[in-house]
Design brief:
This protein is an alpha/beta fold. It is built from five helices and seven strands; from the N terminus they run E-H-E-H-H-E-E-H-E-E-E-H.
Length: 173
């Protein structure tokens, strides 16, 4: 395991957001994401997608459809030299109260360690639940949103509407 792990939300962060995305033909990587992830990879970060996919639990998408989307995202990134170590997915709805739905940390427990060699974590996501997840694992948190410049938030995370700014921040780590 690497000593730096960058956790990435999928919808609305890494790819364009479509409510309950079930169609792999609607996968579009966010502008600047590939360049920023390349910087992160060059800085020694292991890249892991962590995504809530309640469309499965709601019966709106089959697990195989969502897995096909995940594979397409990984394939597009791989074509640009970006290696995703794995994609971790929670298929449950919010009312299921499972241990794996962000902001809970069940999906990433294997990355958490109590010894002194604990990795440095960063989390990029577009929802407050992504930031809460990041805070729960002790990560540097970056909220990818629109209409804001990169600033430290009183809530303990950065906010930006630019993957370029994310690349600059990650590049400084």
């Amino acid at each position: 395991m690497h000593n730096k792990v960058l956790f990435l939300d999928r919808d609305g962060t890494l790819i364009r957001k479509f409510p309950y995305l079930c169609d792999p033909n609607k996968v579009f990587i966010e502008p600047g994401a590939i360049e920023a992830l390349s910087i992160a990879q060059d800085r020694g970060f292991e890249l892991v997608i962590v995504t809530n996919q309640s469309a499965i639990g709601r019966g709106l998408c089959a697990r195989t459809e969502v897995e096909e989307i995940n594979s397409k995202v990984e394939s597009i990134l791989h074509e640009s030299g970006i290696v995703i170590r794995e994609t971790l997915m929670c298929p449950h709805t919010p009312i299921d109260d499972c241990a794996c739905r962000k902001p809970k940390i069940g999906l990433v427990e294997k990355y958490l360690t109590s010894d002194k060699s604990k990795p440095f974590f960063a989390m990029i996501g577009d929802q407050i639940s992504d930031m809460e997840f990041g805070i729960n694992i002790g990560a540097l948190c970056i909220l990818y949103t629109t209409g804001k410049k990169l600033t430290q938030s009183a809530k303990g995370f950065y906010a930006t509407s630019s993957w370029r700014e994310i690349g600059v921040l990650i590049g400084g780590i």
